[in-house]
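To whoever picks this up:

The nightly regression suite flagged LamG-like jellyroll fold domain-containing protein as changed. Nothing in the input moved, so I suspect the structure step. Input below, exactly as stored in the fixture:
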Amino acid sequence: MRILHRTTALTFLAALCVTHAAVAETTPIAHYHLKSDEGAIRDTAAPAVLESFAKGGPALKSHGEPKVMSNGPAIRSLAYTGSIKFEDANLCYAAPVNLVRGDNWVVEAWAYATQVNDKGLHTVLANGNGGNGFLIVQSGDQWQLFIGGVGGTNLGKVTANTWTHLAIVRDRGITSAWIDGKKVANQLPVGGGGANNFSLGASAPGKESFNGWIAEARVSTFKPGQFAGATDFLVDTAQAKILRDADRALVAKLITGLATAPGVEKVDAFAERAYDKDWLVAAAKTPASVQVIPGEDNQPAQIMLTNGLVSRTFLVTDGNLGCISLRRADKDIEFVRAIKPEARVSLNGQWVDIGGLVGALDQAFITPDWFYRLQSSGKSFRLAGMKVGPCVKPYEWKPKCNAPIDIPWPALGRRVTFEFAPPENNAALAGLHIDLHYEIYDGIPVMMKTFTLRNQSSKEVVVTSFEGEHLAVQPTNSKMMHVESDYSFALANFRETSSGLGIHAAGSRAPFKEYYLGGGTTRFKRDPNWGSMATLNPAEDIFVRDIENALLISTPPTGPNWTVKPGESFDAFRTFTILNDTTEDERRFLAQRRFYKTLAPQSNEHLFEVHAPSSHHIKHLGPLLDQMHEIGFEQLQAPEHPGSFNYADASPGNIAAMKTVCDYAKQYDIRVGAYQLMMASQGWGSRQDNFNCIDPASKAPGSAFGQSACGASAWADMYFTNMWKVIDGAGMRAFKPDGPFHGDCCAATDHPHHKGLEECA
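Regenerated output under the current build:
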């Protein structure tokens, strides 16, 4: 599926702008406020019945004896001058009818809270009740939408002794919340309907009563797509228009910044420049590029990353960003099924979305016809900017050990960083910023994705877990995707059915199976939001290889549960996606090989080597080195075994003995490499030393290979210092770690460098 390419792009973008500029026509079905002569004298009795100023609206009967307050919102003073005071628990106006049903409606009210932090729920307006329907309430210091069976959603801070306009709007199936004419929340889980009750001042007499004044309430309907907050609310329409124009100006400023960022190609239509040869046979020469279509009036925009083999396209609208296409450009294969958050992060145990757009009518496909509906959820981190530059090398590397000298490092291509700011209505996220990084590389159908969380607040934050990729994919085409991360070690990627570690898999029968058998960071899951997907029976599901597993997640098997202090940052692991053009094993594995040679350039190194016997004495290794020279071997691997090389012993005698071997090898230009088991397969110290991994099931020392030291225990403070001292002092010229790859877990809570199981890996 092509998404807005070439001549179609501007057509759809122009249509978007026209749709947003539509003029609304609302029809009130119920409207309540005091008559112009009823609000002049405060503390006089309020009317026993509030008649509707909209024809056909039900009358609201008073419960208790509410009083008049000679105060109302100034902008509404031509319609009325007073309001109704609610100060006793048994006061309210109600009718046994549900006024809000179906779709395309707006409910609004003017309220004045007399307490800035009123504990509990205090109802301004109820349609139904707290069990079946929705309430507009004050809860503590927050205005809130409380939904029966769901709970409350904070909308914004309460300002005491100030008139506030509160509104809930449902337009074509999407519900949003507004305060003083400004949208503050979107995609709220509420529709029409509920119990037969419509009330002001409480959800029922004596229940969840409001402390303050209510001046006006109205329920209206409108034609689909014909609502405009700047003109249709009971607010200062001129001020609302100023707010709307200010919002549009902010979006325009954002998109202007995207289109003019250094390294960006500003275009009228995308050019994928699809490669027309077999990239595995003839190297693709199309350089990676970042293209931006700003859109009419700089409102919606689109961004595409492409290299002639693959492309990823994003829609920017309503101040946020969502992925609308991920394609194998040279083969016209689309991989994206629906728009999801760009990433998800659990902060202090609460999940938040990074980017994403909501409002699509289905999760089975994407069509440009729905773009006008798409909005930011209001709860997610919002797009704040973009930077484009060359790819970044994750570690230092120079060609050596027979690797070709012309391997580019870092790999050639483009790196795009989308900068996200926290949602304004969530004080707990203030000061936290997330940078989402993409890389696209010249000549290979591969993209990388990762993120950085920057803590610019004054409080610590814990990254409990994260999903660095969260992508709704086409079920059949997902079989052509190869996804992996650089968070890679044996236990994290272990599967009972496909790993040599199976002989050691005691964990497969343990209560901590998810840790022991992580199954890798890549998960294809069923999408709970894809309601139109036909459910297959188990036999069919196995036969077609889990066709419903069409939600790609890249997440650590456990944790990380990492604490980020003020001023610090957290870098997630990198997720790489190869978009293959077939499910044929040979082509997929050739693509994977090219991927490693490009992005893990050390895999191009190769030496003809010998693994030394269990000795480090020159009288044994000297003759071996002589033979290696005669045959043409290039490296001696010096293993760490009892009676052999000891990298924890930094004594002068041990270093001198090892240096003798290294010096002897240098005459033949043979490298001696430090072959390291480190912590794996061996215990260190006594139980009292507390150096070793603690098995989460038994709570005693133990790991996959019997026993391993914990790299986050005090053992690490000793071992690594001594290890490098030995390697440098002996003059070793290579380092080959074979031990840490196990990824043994540790449930200790008293090791100095980790708090427990979830952050130990």
